[in-house]
Amino acid sequence: MKTQVGIIGAGPAGLVLSHLLRRAGIESVVLESQTRQYIEERVRAGVLEQGTVDLLNELGLGQRMMRQGLMHYGVELRFSERGHRIDFKNLTGGKGVMIYAQHEVIKDLVGARLSDGGQIIFEARDANIHGLDDEKPVIRFTQSGSPQELHCDFIAGCDGFHGVCRNSIPSDVLRVYERDYPFGWLGILAEAPPASHELIYANHERGFALLSMRSPKISRLYLQCKPDEDLDAWPDSRIWEELQKRLATRDGFTLSEGPVIQKGVTGMRSFVVEPMQFGHLFLAGDSAHIVPPTGAKGLNLAVADVRVLAAGLKEFYANGKRELLQRYSEICLRRVWKVQRFSWWMTSLLHKFADDSEFDRRRQLAELDYVTSSRAASTTLAENYVGLPLE
Ligand code: FAD
Ligand code: DHB
Hints:
The protein has helices at 12-23, 36-41, 50-58, 63-68, 88-92, 102-115, 236-247, 298-319, 323-326, 328-350, 358-373, 375-385; strands at 5-8, 28-31, 47-49, 70-72, 74-79, 82-87, 97-99, 119-121, 124-130, 138-143, 146-151, 154-157, 175-190, 200-202, 209-215, 218-225, 260-274, 277-278, 281-283, 289-290. Helix 1 (12-23) runs parallel beside helix 6 (102-115) and helix 11 (358-373) crosses helix 12. Helices cover 36% and strands 28% of the residues. The strands form four sheets. An eight-stranded mixed sheet has the order 6-5-14-15-16-13-17-20. A six-stranded mixed sheet has the order 8-2-1-12-19-18. A three-stranded antiparallel sheet has the order 3-7-4. The chain is built from twelve helices and 20 strands.
């Protein structure tokens, strides 16, 4: 097989890239190791930045999102049992975020790509890449047990954190920056009407809690837990009890409860590799960087990367220039590090750290008080949350 851009991974990065390339008249083939059903059902992110929403609409992929998604123009920060709203619309000149599940985005992107004749090969196993230094790299993989080769001009490594692309770059070329956090998130989906119209990020002395949602009937809730938390120790009744405590307010807020339909634990880390490119390989999304989920940035950052990559490839195929492609990593990393900073900051502001002293606790509460009472500080949070402008 032959194509212009071989894309490994059908997550948000790989699929958005394939749509951007199609719009620019550039051919691509997406190789995905999982089945279509698996990627269309995997429960993950839920918050789309304004820029991500606008891009999906621009690409003609936003109809279902605009019908079923929930546009939010603020979030609540809750601490000392009181809520404080950060008004995005007012602070950012009208911007907001869309609450729309990542797997719904995936369904929309896969459906549209296949119906416009695009090629996504599911269950493409054992992908490995060769010839990154040559003019014509190749991806070898197996499909239904038989070996295949995809020859291409460029490879987009959109295969997530556990993929193969990052490790195909010689280790002496890559520099890794990382930080682990001493906690994780226990997340549930529940058949219960969300107890608030907007997301609530709660700092509580028992640990962080987050109320989010998927629809007017489905809540998505998260609790700070141990990084290796055993789900068996968390029957539904204990999860609700803990959420009720962490989200309680002085004026009697109660969470609506209902059947738990999905449960999982996510670890938290910050991770960046530099550079994000090597020869004809370009890493995008989680294959190059991971953020802790507190800022709701992972998916959005993946989309921002492939916008830069698509622009570089477009320039190359239109007039043979490689300037933008050569600056891919440098351009992406400026945003990546700002988003890393924001995600780290939100995480530090809202979680309980085991070794916190009473001083640290007071400082954290003072910071929350400052962020919610100063227009300048609220604006900092708001403009990062709705998404910084693209370079
Ligand atoms: P992925 O979505 O991981 O996609 C990579 C794809 O590559 C996968 O489909 C995988 O199957 C495939 N693949 C892997 N290896 C291979 C291989 N060898 N060959 C072929 N295919 C391969 N982000 C937000 O923006 N907002 C949020 O609210 C948010 N909340 C989150 C909540 C949770 C619980 C979790 C786990 C994540 C959350 N994130 C959030 C992060 C977000 O889900 C990821 O950052 C995003 O999925 C990254 O997209 P990606 O395309 O880079 O990688
Ligand atoms: C959701 C996930 C996040 O990481 C976040 O910060 C906010 C909301 C969600 O899944 O709805």
